[in-house]
Amino acid sequence: MTKAAKHGIELLRDPSLNKSTAFTEAEKQEFGLIGLVPDVTETEDLQLQRVLLQLSQKNTDLERYIYLVNLLDHNETLFYRTVMSDPARFLPIVYDPTIGEACLKFGHIYRQPRGMYLSIARRGKVKEILQNWPQKDVRFICVTDGGRILGLGDLGANGMGIPIGKLQLYTACAGVPPQHLLPMYLDAGTNNEQYLHDPLYLGMRKPRPPAEELYPFVDEFVEAVQKVFPKCCIHFEDWTGADAIHLLQRYREKYCVYNDDIQGTAGIVLAGMINAAKIKGTKLRDEKYLFLGAGSAGIGLADLICTAMVQEGLPLQEARSHVYMFDINGLLEDTRTDLLDFQKPYAHRHAPTRDFAAAIESIKPTTLIGVSTVGGTFNQKVVEAVSRVNERPVILALSNPTDHAECTPEHAYTWSKGKAIYAAGVQFPPVHLNNQTFLPGQANNFYVFPAIGMAVFATQAARVTDEMFIEAAHAVADQVPAELLKQGLLFPLQSNILESEIQAAARIAKVVFDSGLARVDRPPDMVAFIRRHVYKPDYAIGAVRTNKAA
Ligand code: NAI
How remote is the CA of residue 296 from the centroid of ligand 1, in Å? Predict the structure, then answer.
């Protein structure tokens, strides 16, 4: 038997090695565990049964979330075995929508640290601080400054729940081994008055600095990561719209970075559009898109759709003419003086208007995309207007959490008289209307970014490119069976998510090799290559973790 690095109570307290009631008699003897655990040897399935029983006794998803985080703190393998046993049931608990509530209360439900907290007050010392992290081969850092958490606004340090949850999905959805993942909060303060006055708030109590102060701090962080974790990809998550776009532009050509709110959202929505076009028998370039919201998610998506239309043969300028955007100040058009540089390509010649339904009547979009953070904005007038100008309007109500969705599927199907092809950013149950069952899809980024992560992990990609996200979108779209597509389902079923993402990761990995960005040798069989890297929630032999990094 292999030797465990740890013995006795120290071994039981290491969540990556702890097997709890599953240690065998021989392991108990060898590792000094006799008497420290009950005198039984349970199977992993029996342990899972106990977890499911205890979860069933909790009354709310937030309680289930707290229970599962606690389980992760004690027994990582059992946590992942639980989540991966039924992704459709557990992903909404460990991530969206429960995570939104968990973040709002993060300082109150906090039990013990997870990931790293780096404050702007430590400028000049970032490299030394990163060296405090015990795992030396970090492959992904998911980093937020808490600036725009989901659709909930500035949550400051409470936003740390997001990098923690996002990285769990790398493992649960695509099998990236958890020991290579590092959640990170960059603390530059918060403008959230409630938290500034909450004694249990865990971040710096000062207002956010201007970009001229914030960006040099982020520069120091990004450069320190290159030195301390040279194979690491930095995943930016939930920064405010302008920071998200500017920081991505700042680093994307130089380092291995991506922003999931921009590129991951764009990838998954593009997958939905590819399938909506399949249902309608059209191509992306035949459609006209009207966005409600022109922030980081909206702009990222608009840019990626244009790149995809260019791949379909349209010149870029013409592709952009298929995309209109509307924000808090009305339609983006060429007389507006308040637009940011990255919004201007979508400001076409059109009379100014703040009336979204009227804009639909004049632009005649085929697809509405809600990324506004404001619930109910696709009201009856809006849905009826887009249904008047289309046989099959595509309505994507992507803002989350649930009550921020621009419209519910029930409203979309009812007000469009069953004509709408609908998807949301969160999970909704099927809708029964006039003897028909409609399956609203969830345009959740977790179909895309874990697969990108797995491909980057396995290939040791030097950069993350838009071509990788476009391939991910096609790969995800291709996995919806024809019979479900007919019922309006735009995204694959969550029950089979690991296999879907392995297939997607293999296709993305091929793009990485084709573009010369891989830092390992090209394998003969891409799917087998990805499978070799997949983490399995099985206990390590002799209490020593056997997963090896690529
Ligand atoms: P953001 O804060 O960068 O942008 C929001 C945009 O909405 C801004 O352009 C703003 O002017 C506009 N807006 C706000 N109120 C409006 C109103 N009443 N009418 C019209 N426009 C309005 O936010 P970001 O990052 O672009 O995210 C937007 C939403 O998309 C969030 O709710 C987020 O949860 C959701 N999202 C969904 C994803 C998914 O479903 N896969 C992934 C990423 C984001």
Answer: 7
**Separation of 376 CA from ligand 1 center, angstroms?**
13
Rounded to whole angstroms, the Cα distance separating 214 from 240 reads: 12
Instruction: Tell me the mean pLDDT in the region 151-175.
Output: 94
Between β-strands 330-331 and 323-327, what pairing exists: parallel, antiparallel or unpaired? Answer: antiparallel
Q: What angle do CA 199, 201, 203 make, to 5 degrees?
A: 130
- For 487, residues 6+ apart whose C-beta sits below 8 A from its C-beta are 437, 438, 439
Q: Which segment of 148-152, 164-168, 203-207, 435-439 scores lowest on mean pLDDT?
A: 148-152
In angstroms, what is the span from residue 58 Cα to ligand 1's centroid?
A: 33
Distance of alpha carbon 257 from alpha carbon 232, whole angstroms: 9
CA 162 to chain centre: 9
List the one residue out of 113, 11, 36, 38 whose CA is nearest residue 69: 113
- Please give the average per-residue pLDDT across 448-473, as a whole number: 97
pLDDT in tens, 165-224: 999 999 999 999 999 999 999 999 999 999 999 999 999 999 999 999 999 999 999 999
Mutate to test the pocket of ligand 1, among 173, 371, 426 (most ligand atoms within 8 A of CB): 371
∠ CA 265-107-212, nearest 5°, is: 60
Residue 489's nearest CA partner among 422, 393, 391 is 422
Match 């919806």 to its residue by tokens: 480
The pLDDT confidence band at residue 319, using thresholds 50, 70 and 90, is very high
Helices assigned H by DSSP within 75-160:
76-85, 87-94, 98-104, 106-109, 126-130
pTM of the complete model:
0.89
List the residue whose alpha carbon is closest to atom 1 of ligand 1: 295
pLDDT higher than 50, residue 1: no
**d(C-alpha 191, C-alpha 327), whole Å:** 22
Closest of 549, 548, 550, 545 to residue 80, by C-alpha: 545
Ligand 1: which residue has its CA nearest to atom 28? 371
pLDDT bucket at 52, cuts 50 / 70 / 90 = very high
457 HSE (CA, 13 A, CB side): 34
Mention every residue, 6+ apart, whose C-beta is less than 8 A from residue 56: none
What pLDDT does residue 449 have? 98
- Per the CB < 8 A criterion, the answer to whether 375 and 405 are in contact is yes
Q: How far apart, in Å, are the Cα atoms of 452 and each of 17, 270, 446? A: 27, 15, 10
CB atoms within 10 A of CB 503: 20
pLDDT digits (tens, 9 = 90+) for 529-547: 999 999 999 997 554 444 4
Lowest mean pLDDT among 167-176, 225-234, 426-435: 426-435
Instruction: Decide: 20 and 14 in contact? Cβ < 8 Å.
Output: no
